[in-house]
Amino acid sequence: MQKSTTSLLILVCAFSLLSTLKFGYGSIVGAYSNKSCIENEKQALLILKNSLIDESNNLSSWVGDDCCAWHGISCNKRTGRVIQLDLRGAGLKGDEINSSLLHLKYLSYLDLSFNDFEETRIPEFLSWFKDLTYLNLSNSNFKGLVPRHLGNLSSLRYLDLNGNPLLSIDDMGWLSKLSLLEHLDLSGVDLSGANNWFPLPSSITVLVMINCHLPEKIDSYPIFMNLTSLVSLDLSYNYLKSSFPLWVLNNSDIENLVLGSNQFNGQIPNSIEKMTSLTVLNLGSNNFQGSNLVLNVSSNWVPPFQLRYIYLQSMTVGPKFPRWLQTQKQISYIFLANSGISDIIPADWFVSVFVSRLKSIDLSDNDINFEGLSSVSAAPVGLNTLALSNNRFSGEFPAFLCNVKSLSTLILSNNKFTGELPQCLGNLTELTHFDVMNNSFSGEIPAALGNLVHLNYLNLHNNSFHGKIPLSFQNLTELVTLDLGKNNLNDNFPPWTGEQLPRLKYLILRSNNLYGNIPAQLCSCPSIQLLNLAQNQITGNIPSCFGNLIAMIEGESEVLHPGFSYLSGQMIVDDAKGYELRYTSTLGYLFSIDLSDNDIRGEIPEELMDLGGLVNLDLSGNQLSGRIPEGIGELSKLEYLDLSKNKLSGRIPQSLSDLSFLSRLNLSFNNLSGKIPTGNQLQTLEDPSIYAGNNNLCGQPLKSCITDAKSDHRKDDTGSYDEHIWFYTGISPGFFVGLLGFCASLYFIDSWRLSYFYSVERVSEKIAIALFPRKFQY
């Protein structure tokens, strides 16, 4: 019996133990299983959703009970609390960040970047998220002052406000309170009016302050004093004026150093040799108003670092190709434009780097030669940018480039290349920018260029191409710039340029042998803002539908980023009456029509006067007849007007004097007559040659008009007669009023009357004595 009892106890204990283990394990699993989100947090998210416009339906998953499964939401697996809200690039719009977010008390990660909050202010309540470690509000169209209360985010490690140019900071002091901050990006935020430049936290490893309008003498402020942990620094586009900032050298572990596009001067200290971890070095485009920044190293210097990226544009690193650069075996990006190099590229180094790992190279605006370029056979892997403009490269087109399928930008302009462009260029299907202007290429333009469907910039200006414009160019639907000017092309004007190239802005076909009429289809191109067809054999009339060129009516175009360079494919060279005008960052403001030196007939269409954004208009050297349109004064932005060498007749419209920006005018050699208008801007254009060859014109700055002289004389005579009439007309009532006042005074004032008569009596006696002295002798 005892044995049975013992066995029963053992069995009960075992069962109890198993039960405990079972339920205990279940409790542990339950503690760490995924919990659905908290109800009030779900409701807060739904309120946020309803306050935003979600045109892309990126929040379509925000339905159902479990908000932890919604797009962009992450929850704590143990508590079910929302800890992460990531709506980066969701395409949301709204005029506020709804305060319902305050219910997400345990939020540690908030990313609202790349949305549109319609110039609303950053809400102060964001400073209440005590657990927040990551805050990204970049590129979201915020406006106003950044709230100082963000300094209360004591756990914050990552802060990104870049890409909000309407934001500003008036007090930098709150940043010093973020003692755990590691990543800070304020690019584009206006700091020009800020004060309290207290030292930034020493914990910062990444500092990006591009185009922040920093004070010129920022070195005199203590803001950078404690930065000893920096790994990456970018202060570009602030136009800082000082010598090389020595505090940078306190960061021997720095990997990315970007100080480009400022006005630093002097020499780089030798202590740069201590920066053994450098992989990115950008010191280019400094000191625009003085001598270039000089890289002061010996010819045998071997850097302690291996760079991947080097940008020394507009620095003096020449005249010899720098030997220290040849020690850089890991280099992928080289930008040495305008760096004073006048030398031959070392072939062995160039080929080894070029073929193995180079992604982008820009050696433009130097005096470099490399005769072996055309003989390179191996194709580089991954090269996307090759810019060699304004050098002495010669020979035929480097055929190996046809095998670089990754190439997107190829700029060989202003060199001495010869021969024909190969058909194999059609293999470069990723190419977006192709520029070979100002070389000596010849032959026909290869039709294979029409395969480059991603091309948006094509410049073959000033070569010796002949034949026809390839019909395959109709395939280039992404084209923004097409420049075939100054060649020997002999073709009918391409009628497809308007309808087939809808994005075309800049069309330059000048100085060829193009013939035929200007097709009405060209008016179908809504974006065209520069049209240069000068010096061809074009006939017919100016299409009246030119008045429908929308871009020229509005006079508006995209404004380019401060960091603009010709590598963006937006440089235009336009010839105007012997002047070669280069447009880069100002290109967005250029609206021009040049049809000069053709055989265009008929009248200037009135519809042309609807192009209120037009800056340049040149119709000279044609057979245009009729009058200058009265509405010429509506072209309010016009700076250059040339209607010379036509058959225009009649008077010059008075409205021409309304063009307040007009600085160059030529109406010579027409049949214009009458008086030259005066007033406003025309008063400053005093050169008689402006009106030469119009025998019936008169007035300043030409001879006076005869009818005007007679009219002026009659005006003088009439004016003199009028003066006499008014003089005599006014004298009578004046005398009468004066006499009346005198008599009234004598009548009402006794003392005046007695004195007056006494005086009259005395005077009468004296006169009588003088006239009749004998009668008054005693």
What does this structure look like?
Residues 125-328 form the Disease resistance R13L4/SHOC-2-like LRR domain. It is found in: Cell membrane. Keywords: Cell membrane, Glycoprotein, Leucine-rich repeat, Membrane, Repeat, Signal, Transmembrane, Transmembrane helix. The chain crosses the membrane at residues 725-749. One of its GO terms (biological process) is defense response. The chain is globular. Among the domains are: 492-704, Ribonuclease Inhibitor (Leucine-rich repeat, LRR (right-handed beta-alpha superhelix)), CATH 3.80.10; 710-776, no CATH class. It has 778 residues and is α/β, with parallel strands linked by helices. The chain is 16% helix and 18% strand. The longest helix is centred in the last third of the chain and has 43 residues, at 706-748. α5 (706-748) packs across α6. A hairpin with a 2-residue loop joins β32 (572-576) and β33. It has a 24-stranded mixed β-sheet, with no helix packed on it. A five-stranded parallel β-sheet has the order 19-21-23-25-27, with no helix packed on it. It has a five-stranded parallel β-sheet with strand order 35-37-39-41-42, with no helix packed on it.
